[in-house]
Amino acid sequence: MKEILIEPNEKQKRFFESTARFTAYGGARGGGKSWAMRIKFLLLALGHDGISILLLRRTLGELRENHILPLQSLLKGIADYSESRKEFSFRNGSRIKLGYCDTEADVLQYQGQAYEVIGLEEATHFTFFQFQCLTECNRFSGRMKKRFAPRMYLTCNPGGVGHEWVKRLFIDRRFFEGENAEDYCFIKSLVFDNGFLLKNNPEYVKTLEALPDARKRAMLYGDWDAFEGAFFPEFSYKVHSCPDFDVPKEWLRFRALDYGLDMCACLWLALSPEGSVYVYRELYEPSLILSEAAKRITALTPTEERIRYTVASPDLWNRRQDSGKSGFEIMTENGLRGLKKADNSRITGWRVVREYLKHNEDSPPRLKIFRCCENLLRTLPQLRFDESVKEDAADKPHELTHAPEALRYALMSWEPKEAQKADNPKSFIYSFEKQKPKNDGYRSLINY
Ligand SMILES: Nc1ncnc2c1ncn2[C@@H]1O[C@H](COP(=O)(O)OP(=O)(O)O)[C@@H](O)[C@H]1O
Ligand SMILES: [Mg+2]
């Protein structure tokens, strides 16, 4: 007979009681996530004879520290541990298997296996592909006598390769076809919910409070828009998004395009007389061939909208092997006129974007994004720093890069040297300057 005293806090109780298909717990440091996961699995193993449980962390080292060692001490005399199988077996036939998915392919070893319960510790360290593969193994194993609805329990902090999908499903609650809103339950817990830690290690909170601002917002308050490594910590949905409105006819408009077959990202931008740039429409669609993309972009632009130019990634001017034509030619033939090559200086370009995002209590940002531009608003705060080039953004996960790159091309098309090409009659900026010579708002933007 072994007695274990379990005193969960309120949030941990809710985690224990949740029977949703997917329950995510946490959102910040020190909220008692790992403890809750271990105890929950112990309760499930004891309460449901023959249940198969899989508990995963991304790497073996983390798994050992975080779970194998604590579970070995917790389950001493309750379950037997096999090091070779990394599995605890209980007398009632239940088992808790521990595993890790270091590489993308490691997840495939679980294919064909069945676990009624799967736990993902630090779920934001897993890719969406890994999560999806694991949901396929989350089914009735046939070893239980009673039926049991399969479920997954996740713990998470903002940040990491999986930040995007965890945020989408549990925080933003934006669902794709085949995903049911009622299947996803999120229980937010902060260090302040963990009475145990507050009492036994008050220094821990002080350490979190001393973190740099963006990291503190993520780790102490569980703010999913501000996570460690965010490339644009200055981005704030509240500050940079604005309700959609009818853009006045006389405002200057242009487009920016990052074309790829994997994703065609096009932004429509307008310039206010005060010198602010508004992104007012976006196209974000995969699998469009060049001619279709050109047609979609023109179709989305009402005829009365006068678009001065469309700046696009320079590789569009490369000749394609299949047709011998360049993307530029194909798009132009299909009705997308006024394409011009973007300046692809990445580091300078990101600095320009940063300048536009900059804001403080006294001055609002120079860039505003309509709420309808969901993908730009979603991906900008998730872009991460490249680990090797200090001032560049990471190109992985690749899906996050398309809309921000289009934005970079757009804002770089206002380069001062372009504005100074006074002898170039085709230059939009020049011709605009000629139209509005006294407007300081525009001028300051142009001379950025
Ligand atoms: N209800 C609880 N009872 C006892 N100790 C707890 C409880 N919740 C958390 N702890 C302890 O608090 C500390 C932090 O919890 P942990 O689960 O590691 O947090 P997280 O994984 O969220 O960072 C650990 O030492 C853990 O054992
Ligand atoms: Mg933990």
The stretches of 5 or more residues where confidence is low (pLDDT under 50) are 415-448
What small ligands are held by the chains? Answer: adenosine-5'-diphosphate, magnesium ion
CATH class of the largest domain: Alpha Beta
Helix content: 25-40%
Can you identify the CATH superfamily of the largest domain? P-loop containing nucleotide triphosphate hydrolases
Q: Care to count the β-strands?
A: 15
Distance N to C terminus: 74 Å
Largest sheet: 8 strands, mixed
User: What would the principal axes of the Cα set say about the shape?
Assistant: elongated
Fraction in beta strands = 15-25%
What report would you give on this structure?
By secondary structure, the protein is an alpha/beta fold. The chain folds into two domains: 210 residues, 3-Layer(aba) Sandwich (Rossmann fold); 177 residues, Nucleotidyltransferase, domain 5. The chain is 33% helix and 18% strand. It is built from 17 helices and 15 strands. The strands form two sheets. The protein has an eight-stranded mixed β-sheet with strand order 3-4-5-2-6-7-1-8, sandwiched between helices. Strand 3 and strand 4 form a beta hairpin. Helix 10 crosses helix 11 and helix 12 packs across helix 14. The longest helix has 15 residues. Magnesium ion binds next to helix 2.
